[in-house]
Amino acid sequence: MPKPPLDDYMDTAAQALGLPLEPAWKPSVKANLKVTLHLAELVAAYELPDDSEPAPVFKA
Questions:
Q1: How far apart are the first and last CA of the chain?
Q2: Phi, psi dihedral angles at 52 (to 5 degrees)
Q3: Residue 29: is it exposed, middle or buried by C-beta count within 10 angstroms (0-12/13-18/19+)?
Q4: What is the pTM of this model?
């Protein structure tokens, strides 16, 4: 049985980045990724008008 896509992504990303990913951490990492992906979907679904301008840059 193949691993779920998010599990496979976690393992592949950790290996590519050279990060240790202990088995005990995986449920927390997976929960965080699910929240992050959900928030990304909300941002991507928001349609901006064609005349939108980027926000100005403020420097202190």
A1: 54
A2: -65, 140
A3: middle
A4: 0.71
pLDDT tens digits, 11-59: 999 999 999 999 999 999 999 999 999 999 999 999 989 998 888 888 8
Q: Give the pair of three-digit tokens for residue 38.
A: 């959900």
Contact by Cβ (8 Å): 7, 30: yes
3-state DSSP helix/strand/coil % of the chain, to nearest 5: 60, 0, 40
- Amino acid in position 12: T
Nearest to residue 13, comparing CAs of 32, 46, 2? 32
Query: Given this model, what pLDDT does residue 1 score?
Result: 74
3-state secondary structure of 47: coil
